[in-house]
Amino acid sequence: MDHIQVPAGITHYVGMGVNRSNPFTTVFEENHVDGLYTESEWGAGPMCMKYYMDSPVLKHCIMHLSISMAGKNEGKVADGTHDVLIDELIRFLKEYKDVPFLLRIGYEFEGPWNHYDPEDFKRAFRRLVDRLRQADVTNFATVMASASFDTPYETWQLYYPGDEYVDWVGYSYWGGRSTDGPSLRFARDRRKPVFIAESTPRGHFLDQEDGRQVWEAWFEPFFEHISENSDVIRAISYINCNWDAQSMWKGQGWGNTCIQSNDFIKAKWLEKMKSSVFQLVFKKMD
Asked: Does pTM surpass 0.85?
């Protein structure tokens, strides 16, 4: 925000029963949603949703809240063991009833790092949504998001909780020249808007590379992907991050994707964001 203006939305991550020290594998036994009301640290910087909500700078932002149930916690959400955590989420959303939330439940559902059981995942997704609705929470829409736009159609079907529970279809985008994919076809068949819920030029160090070359190699295909699927793509989230400076990601080849660290890319990005395509608009699908 100090470098690239206040965005239309902010992405945040919380864990339902997930251990802050290792969100992908272990259980954190505490009756609170990790990273919601209090500060948590998973190795990618301090996380606290309430800090965002109480910031006057972000008062007009949409909140994209990504909910992890990794570590076999999807089963505990599904069977009611974690109802206390759902109740805390209900209380939180009601406290900020004038803010729209996109809830990405069990994000990257098919990723092998999450180990989600398809049946438990579906039941967990439905239980969370049912309890929100029963509590008359109205300021949210749900997102079911995969790890890639190339996730097989059959995998989507295997995990899908039903049209009445999924408002948006989403996926993560790390690059590539493909302009279509099974995730997009699934969204069109289900008549759902698409959210590119995570995107970043993985493997690039924007502070060290030629900005023009990186723009042509990653950013141009990214914007082409959006343009060529503009019938369904309605939102994007770019991760502006020095990955290699964070213990959770250091040495894994993610790089430094901070737009402000490269003058050429920053200028091109700001120019792109002036387009009416990237302005905040509320619109129902036809």
From this structure: yes
